[in-house]
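Comment thread on ticket #2218

A.B. wrote:
> Attaching the input chain for the structure job we discussed in standup.
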Amino acid sequence: MATWPTGTKASTANLDAGTDSPRLARADIKQNVDNVNSIIDMFNIDSPTANQVLKYNTSNARFELGTDDAGSSGDITFVGDDSTGTAVSLNETFKIAGATGITTAVSGDTLTITGTAQDFAYSSLTGAPTNVSSFTNDAGYITDDGNGDLTITNSTIQSSGDTIDLDDIVRFNVGYKEDINALTSSASISVDATTAPVHTVTLAHAATFTISNMVSGQSILIIITQDGTGARTGTFTSVKFPGGAPTLSTGAGDIDVISVFYDGTNYLGNIAQDFTT
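C.D. wrote:
> Ran it. Output below, let me know if you need it in another format.
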């Protein structure tokens, strides 16, 4: 392999004066030619262009021309989404940091950014320019017209164990529907207010109804249909009715509707009887 000829410099003792003998200088001339050839063997710098640098190539043990990746300035500029560029010098470390739910990893020349799904909670939504005016997902979206009116499109509002507060007038342009929970007839029937606002049962027993999980201000309906035999009785634990406990309609197939409102202390009931066409 060619090397730097620092230890093989030729003497100029036989080359300094015009009277020097070329014969005596022959060895020094040969040494200098060998040194120049070593340099030529070590470097390949034919036709360099602007901003090129010398890079060592281990495959042929030579320095060869290469591109200066940093450009003429000597720095690399990174530009983010905000279009603000940040210059990083060649000997600096440029760090990409992950936020909550985001991680980064580098392997070779590959940068991997991994994110996870996040839940976002907003306590208010207004039409002011500095606030969010639209929520969206794959199923639907909510928009604010800037005047405080929200439009919900192709979406379902859900709450897990919490309350959705609507602090103004709620208007249904088309209508709304309530979930209906079918109860099973037995001597003891439990009516869980968390399952639905409306409950139905076809009585085949003399039954005692027990209502649970109502919150203050909530109301439910119980639609009771007599079976083909009729004369089934019903009592309602802890519910107060006007004038005392009601008596169900007794005819086969008769339909009664019990409404119950809970004021936080009392379960207040009413009965509408014998629905017919």
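A.B. wrote:
> Thanks. Noting for the ticket: Confidence is low (pLDDT under 50) at residues 120-132.
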